[in-house]
Amino acid sequence: MSPEAHSPRPAQAPAPDLGPQLGARDSRLFDALFVGRLATVLGVYLALIAGLLVALGSFTSPSDLARATQSEEIRYAFWLSLETCTLATILSLWIAVPSGYLLSRFQVPRPRRRWSWRDGGSWLAYFLQNLLDALLDIPIVLPPLVIGLALLILFQTSLGKAVERVHPVTFDVPAVILAQFTVACAFAVRTMRVTFDQISPRSEQVALTLGCSRRQAFWLVVFPEARRGLVTAATLSWARSLGEFGPILVFAGATRMRTEVLPTTVFLELSVGNIEAAAAVSLIMVAAALAVLLLTRAFGLRGTGLI
Questions:
Q1: Alpha-carbon distance values, 295 to 1, 228, 238 (Å)
Q2: Which H or E run includes 95?
Q3: N or C: which end of the chain has fewer CB within 10 A?
Q4: Contact partners, residue 193, CB within 8 Å, separation at least 6
Q5: DSSP assignments along 132-153, one per residue
Q6: Burial tier of 194 (Cβ tally within 10 Å: 0-12, 13-18, 19+)
Q7: Sign of the alpha-carbon torsion through 140, 144, 148, 153
Q8: Are 201 and 105 in contact (CB under 8 A)?
Q9: Is the pLDDT confidence value at 197 over 50?
């Protein structure tokens, strides 16, 4: 008899206790109940959103919408909103494309070892990178009124007054654009960073080895692949600019026929008790936002965490 026959077998780990085993029918039943509970939670939230839209629609009428569209003040606010949102979006993309590319391609990895004087430079670079990320997110997390107040105080400094002497900004149309840009650009930067993160750097590296400069590799290889993310960043920035109210109210004011945009129109109509006109303008903004979201989902980039 071979010696292996008398050698003790290795002890096997006991199987984990999974509790009482369920049959296939019971398992399907419990799965259906679990999914049903999750669907109930989602349905409650969807019902809240639908209720908001139905409430707006029930409080206005086609005649109210017609009067709103015929009002000279509301038409001015509508066209001013289109112009300022478009300019703020262009400025946001102008900042977001290079910023997102730099944040994506030049990341500082976290040092593997604990902090030491020898690795102090690596830890300092890693800390500064995280500090930069936090600064870029400040317009997203700050209350809108705080952003407007900060912009207002900024243009009361010596540098801001120097800019004011060249061209008036505070309580004028440029203040509307700057307030919209300050918030919308943060969303555009995040979207473009996710876009460049999803683009493999291999094709860019191949272009560099074939003699392209980094500028040529960016414009000829990377940028064409980022077009869907560019559409997403543009539509999200435009929609965010359209709904901006707090910074505009503090920094640009709500002067009729001057700095009045659609959100401030709603505020002004409510302040005089014209709830029907406020609801009509709100429905116009809902329709514009819905069109932007549908455009983003049709032509934009998925996986950004924002659509």
A1: 78, 11, 12
A2: helix 72-105
A3: N
A4: 99, 100, 103, 104
A5: HHHHHHHHHHS-HHHHHHHHHH
A6: buried
A7: negative
A8: yes
A9: yes
* 213 three-class SS: coil
Q: How far apart are CA 230 and CA 106, in angstroms?
A: 20
**Of 91, 90, 188, whose CA–CA distance to 139 is shortest?**
188
- What is the 3-class SS of 246-299, one letter each residue? HHHHHHCCCCCCCCCCHHHHHHHHHHCCCHHHHHHHHHHHHHHHHHHHHHHHHH
Residue type, 194: V
The whole-angstrom separation of Cα 239 and Cα 249 is: 18
- The mean of the pLDDT values for the chain is 82
Q: Residue written as tokens 């400025």?
A: 91
CA 292, CA 307: separation in Å to the nearest integer?
11
DSSP one-letter code for 46: H
Please state, in angstroms and rounded to a whole number, the distance separating the CA atoms of residues 292 and 286. 10
Note the pTM of the prediction, 2 decimals: 0.79
Quote the CA–CA distance of 37 and 85 in Å, as a whole number: 41
**Structure token pair of residue 25:** 């029918």
Tell me what the mean pLDDT of segment 162-169 comes to: 88
One-letter amino acid at 123 equals: W
Residue 190 scores a pLDDT above 80:
yes
- Residue 187 and residue 243: Cα distance in Å, rounded? 13
Total count of residues recorded for the chain: 307
- The conformation of residue 220, written as its DSSP 8-state character, comes to I
